[in-house]
Amino acid sequence: MASETNALSPDHAAQPRSTPATSPGARFLPILLVLFAASGCAALIYEIVWFQLLQLALGQTAVSLAVLLTAFMGGLCAGSLGLPRLNLAGQHPLRVYAWLEAGIAFFALIVGPLISFFNRINFTGEQHGVAGLLLRGVIALVCLLPPTVLMGASLPALARWIQATPQGLSWWGWLYGGNTAGAVIGCLVAGFYFLRVYNMAITTYVAAAMNVAVALGALLLAKWTPASANPDPAAPEPVAEPEPAGPHAWTIYAAIALSGATALGAEVVWTRLMGMLLLATVYVLSAILAVFLSGLAIGSAAGAWLIPRVRPRLALGWCQIPLVAAIAWTAFAIVHSLPYWTDDKLTTVDPWRMFLLDLKRCVWALLPATILWGASFPLACAAAARPKQDSARLAGGIYAANTLGSIVGAVVVSLILIPWIGSAHSERVLIAISALSGALVLVPLIRQTKSIALGTGLAVSLAAAALLWASVDPIPGELIAYGRRMGVNVGASTILYSAEGRNSSVAISQWNTGAIYVNVNGHVEATTEPYDMRLQRMVGHLPALLHPNPQSVLGIGFGAGVSAGTFTRYPTIRKITICEIEPVIPPASTRFFGVQDYQVALNPRTHIVFDDARHFLLTTADKFDIIASDPLDVFIKGTAALYSKEYFEAVKQHLNPGGMFTLYVPLYESDEPTVRSELATFFAVFPHATVWANLRDGLGYDTVFMGQADPLKIDVDAIQQRLDRPDYAPVAQSLSEIEAGSAVQLFATFLGQQSDLGPWIKGAEISHDNDLKLQYLAGWGINSAMEDVLYRKMLALRRPPHNLFTGSLESVRALMSQLVGADR
Questions:
Q1: Pairwise CA distance, residues 237 & 142, whole Å
Q2: 611 and 489 in one domain?
């Protein structure tokens, strides 16, 4: 098998273009490029769908995501290494590729049912700790290995058809770039259209149809073409570049592995930081991934164009060195540039305009580095090529090294570096690795050529890299606290504490008014503002007062600890379990919100479980008298999994007889389709549910949904008598602090029930696990300022709740009077 012409020799200067392709198979290469791009489009659609499905089963923690990524990319690595070692003598490479595509379609169609099967198994018992982590890995591997192995084998299969002449190696780069460009399209159409308009099943069918079409196209090409295509028939038998031979050949593979590690490591860091900066909706994360892939595609095309014109080893080495500056640029842009852009992103209610502005920010910050990473792959293939080498083994080996490095980079950065040393120092590590990667490639060349100029250039570049390494600034607490509002909020408060945990970044801020806020990933989660304190305590007090004898509680999300802390006031409650995804939050909140949350984290009745809330609920055998959920806002990617019909049914199954479930639902940063969907989904599982309002300055702001299995009857006098008991004095005091010192004052927040709100929610989207439409609806309306409008619409439908409240005539009249007063 061919390798390189004199265009790759050590004394090479720029060469003229090679003779145009005239072989029988070469003229079909553009068609193959289109087919491989379509394959890349389908692959990204699958990746988005599969990751969403598996995260439902295994959780949204960084550990779970690392396991999923390892399983996905591990399959790609295994496929790229495995196919070249199969005995496929006499088989047309394009026919092999066609069967690979058909196999991807087949296995892709059964991945969804397979994941659903494992979802059902997860209900059988607890799966936490190391045993749970191993189980997650096995589940992900079983589900993803068959299709991802076939995906990984596709490029080596095509490489076996194209001889590794300079033009042939260039075509490898074009194919890799075309596949990545197709992935960009897949990312955008899946994230912005198919999953928003349809569901995961329909989206999967579309991708599978694309694979089948590609397979049919490849079979036709195999029928019309010879078993080997030489895009450069005029080129002589290629010779390898002398310097990589022998002991230095490994440096090419090491360099491309390090390049993959920095690329995926940086993607982890930058996705996290850009998610804070832009709000991590499902659309923003699709935009970030699309820009990242676009840069890889552009870079791969540039590298393919360069192969016949440069010395590939030299070009590969110098491709890594500018990455140092590119990584430093992105670090600078995220901290010092993007937060201060002054467009109308914060105020526009046109979602398309908002996401285009997000896309512009991503291009500005991410594109330079991704182009250089994209160019590295085709250059590495050309630099490692050998005379008579099996081209499939060459392409598969380089691809496997790059993929293996990507796995290590993503896992190490997400699970170790960020929680250990933070984002800024992680970026410094990536800068150092990029410099090392360039040196690995260039040092053998310097020794072979004894080039003083090349050695001096490398030394100067490494010195510059050290300066750039030192220039990376820490992530400001304001970015963690305010995210996209950092530019307008700087100076309005003081950052008291900030930390980057394994799953989330947390900042505690004190505003000039004296209010203290806990902020997670660039968004407010809880505050000491009077309206927020009222909401947080309502989540706990409503079910605890209405349950006749609550003893066990599950709190979903710690936040400031205020909701969970309300349960410490109740004398009958014996056990408080809190499920929190981020370990740094409880100690930080306890330090700054200890008065407001009654030191709940330190209470002997409290047990904190650090896990994804959905995964914990689906895998625990425990049942509870009360489940109180105070999650992140629903537009944050992943949170919609805590608002689906299937999740609510799981909650219902984990309630003891007479148990009650409360759920925080905001009206701010939301729109009518989102709130109607949330309410319709909740009523679908809890038909006897009630809705309770929380106002801000007399205007609608947020709500609490409360559900239980049986119709609710509230004896106002009985509740008041309980509040008047000496052992309930702490409860009464807690309520008085939010201006709800009596049962009448608390229950006057009643907003409606299904008999009232049914007409408003008729036809609303029911959020299911197999589509999670809610995250797409919610992400579409985050700039809406409709909180009071939505409240007034619901209030207008409320009828006097005589079927709900009982008690003395005086108490019921007082309550109805306050409810009527709210109507005015």
A1: 44
A2: no
What CATH number is attached to the domain comprising 442?
1.20.1250.20
Tens-digit pLDDT profile for residues 539-572: 999 999 999 999 999 999 999 999 999 999 999 9
Burial of 763 (0-12, 13-18, 19+ CB in 10 A): exposed
Angle at 300 between CA 299 and CA 304, to 5 degrees: 115
**Across 36-57, average pLDDT:** 91
Residue given tokens 């949350």 in the structure block? 597
pLDDT per position as a tens digit, 157-170: 999 888 777 888 89
Contact 408, 237 (CB under 8 A): no
The first and second tokens of residue 30, run together, are 């553009």
Which domain CATH number covers 543? 3.40.50.150
What single-letter amino acid sits at 427? E
Cβ neighbours of 85 (radius 10 Å): 12
User: How many structural domains compose the chain?
Assistant: 4
Long-range contacts of 697-701 (CB under 8 A, 24+ apart): 697/531, 699/787, 699/788, 699/791, 700/667, 700/787, 700/788, 700/789, 700/790, 700/791, 700/792, 700/795, 701/531, 701/535, 701/666, 701/667, 701/668, 701/787, 701/788, 701/791
Question: How big is the CA angle at 590 (ends 587 and 594), to the nearest 5 degrees?
Answer: 170
Rounded Cα distance, 96 and 87, in Å: 12
Provide mean pLDDT across the span 733-752: 95
Residues in the chain: 824
Concatenating the DSSP letter of every residue in 611-623 gives S-HHHHHHH----
